[in-house]
Amino acid sequence: MKATFDYKDCQICPQDCGVNRLIGEKGFCNTGMELSVSSVVTHKGEEPVISGDKGICNVFFGHCNLQCLYCQNHQISRNVNHFDHKDLDLIKVTQQIVRRLKTGITHLGFVSPSHVPLQMKMIINSVRAEQFDPVIVYNSNGYDGLQTLKTLEPDIDIYLPDFKYADNELSLQYSGAGDYVENVVKSISEMIAQKGELKLNGYGLASNGVIIRHLVLPGHIQNSIDVLRIIAKEFGTSIHLSLMAQYYPMQAIKEYPNMSRILNPIEYDQVLEELEKLGFENGWVQELESNSNYLPDFEKEEPFERN
Ligand code: SF4
Predict the structure, then answer these.
(1) Is 29 touching ligand 1 by the criterion CB < 6 Å?
(2) 158 CB less than 6 Å from ligand 1?
(3) Which of 51, 68, 159, 277 could covalently link to 46 via disulfide, CB atoms 3.0 to 4.6 Å apart?
(4) How far is the CA of 19 from the centre of ligand 1 (A)?
(5) Beta-carbon neighbour count of residue 257 at 10 Å?
(6) Do 141 and 113 touch, CB atoms closer than 8 A?
(7) Alpha carbon 249 to chain centroid distance?
(8) What is the pLDDT of residue 300?
């Protein structure tokens, strides 16, 4: 039997809303059956093995199955407002991707796809029908449905999940999910079971495997230390890890005193010390100065380009 996604009693992600998206009911993610693509961009700011020299072609979906108050993509990820879809239908999205792949870009990434796996699969199939076979990167918040991941297995080459929290009270407060920790462990376990550790091609670019990302939050250093400890215990220290320091306080988080500022060097050093103590062998550590370099503006045609 062909595996598919059940949008009728939606349990696509761990929010388990049970709504019938086929008839227009909306759950936590406020997304129905529409393609829900916000932007197709060339992005050079990912890990070097993902971006390479030419960048990755990233497809950004609108809305999200988490609602992180500090999300840098808040213009498109908020579920309360309808973002501007810019009339991106499947034909236009495919054209924009193919135009970029023709320039020699080899990686096609999907950002925040956890609530729209069928839409993502339609785009992948459409690109393949144009005789392109890019490396597919699934770039999620880590709060993914297990069955959804199993169904996606044949289509994905690289999983690029976040591991945001080691504390469900924090994940509930800042992201709207009170069961994040157990679910992110399950999701990443499945990803690793499918793809194993990261492999590179002859050009030094990632071809297959898993990279875990963790964004260090100001005022929550113990959370980061605990996240690193869980990763080491559950997945081992040879996993590729990307430690990120680019946190920048967005408007929605400014009422939380700890989170209304950028990370300071003393905090970041504590996390780096733990990283070293645990003995992680592979990955990347972002410079602390990165915090305003990565803020996209989705009002622009190229959200990551500086004027
Ligand atoms: S995909 Fe959306 S509707 Fe479905 S369970 Fe997740 S948040 Fe709810």
Answers:
(1) yes
(2) no
(3) 51
(4) 8
(5) 9
(6) no
(7) 19
(8) 73
Neighbours of 249 (CB within 10 A): 16
What tokens appear for 39 in the block? 């932007």
Q: Which of 175, 160, 159 is nearest to 220 (CA)?
A: 175
pLDDT of residue 220: 96
Q: Enumerate domains of the chain plus CATH numbers.
A: 37-292 (3.20.20.70)
Query: What is the rounded CA–CA span in Å between residue 221 and residue 199?
Result: 31
Distance CA 252, CA 259 (A): 10
Strand ranges (DSSP E) for the chain? 37-43, 56-61, 107-111, 135-139, 158-159, 199-200, 206-215, 240-244, 282-285
pLDDT given at position 185: 98
Q: What is the pLDDT of residue 180?
A: 98
> Which residue's alpha carbon is at the smallest distance from atom 3 of ligand 1?
27
* 293 pLDDT above the threshold of 80: no
Q: Is 83 a residue whose pLDDT tops 60? A: no
Residue type, 305: E
Q: Is the pLDDT of residue 289 over 70?
A: yes
Amino acid identity of residue 8, one-letter, is K
Report pLDDT digits (tens) over 135-169.
999 999 999 999 999 999 999 999 999 999 999 99
**Entry field: residues in the chain:** 307
Scanning the structure block, which residue is given the tokens 């591991």? 163
110 neighbors 61 (Cβ within 8 angstroms): yes
Distance 55 CA to ligand 1 centre (A): 30
How far is it, in rounded angstroms, from Cα 224 to Cα 165?
7
